[in-house]
Amino acid sequence: MSASGGTKAIVAALGANLAIAAAKFVAFAFSGSSSMLAEGVHSLADSGNQFLLLLGGKKAQREATPQHPFGYGRERYIYAFLVSIVLFSIGGMFAIYEGYEKISHPHDLEHWYWPVGVLVFAIIAESFSFRTAIKESNTLRGKLSWKEFIRRAKAPELPVVLLEDFGALIGLILALGGVGLALLTGDGVWDGIGTLCIGVLLVLIALVLAVETKSLLLGEAAGLEDVKKIEAAIVDGDTVTRVIHMRTLHLGPEELLVAAKIAVQHDDTAAEIATAIDAAEARIRAAVPIARVIYLEPDIYSEIEAAKGPDPSATPGGPNPHAAGH
What we know:
The protein is mainly alpha-helical. Strand 2, helix 9 and strand 3 form a beta-alpha-beta unit.
């Protein structure tokens, strides 16, 4: 995975979640707290999610094959989508079920110091993991807000880890609140309410992840800044006079496909056009290094065709509607 920061954040989260999961299950065994059980399953699910992200990154590095000529970069999107499903089904739905059961059949907490101690330890550990994810994300986020970063990021790992860690911290606070209120009031229903809130939180985060990764799976274009760089790199003002139309598509987080119809001079020779296209491809790759698959089609620009607008069937410079057969 070329996004080394994402890998570092995933490994940090994986180590923290495995340790926290073990501690939570021990606390549940001694106290009978449903919040601890739900949080233990949550941490276990998170650990599985981080393993899936690492596995997706490994599989995405495979070389292209005749059956998959554009490579396996989208494996990372597929595994990120699986993470949202795991978080929803195992983490969220289990917590909702466990919370409902505890509210229906409440019981007093035993050895309260176990869940409280583990929750404090878990909050500290998750805070370090969340801090690592924030630090690594800041190197890529630039001037984007956190909401914009999560929505626009083409590499899914950091947004997934950020949302997971954020959800884990909020969930731990909810669990601590549920356990605390159960101890103060002597009513175990509060423990169940805390568990139910954790489940709802996890389902909401899972839905956000599912929507964002679905968009990546469908195929997203390059960012506006990269599109402008590519358009500027294509035109040389001599042989290539303008970009007639262009499409971009992310084949993976660090691999971009560029397909453009470009306007050339009507009296240019085939050799001159071929040389101009090669030069344009070199400029594109220099301006946007992730543009690795480039297809440029030369054409003669037509004002008449351009006046028809952006409709693909009336692409400027495209087929002449007055040609034979029309």
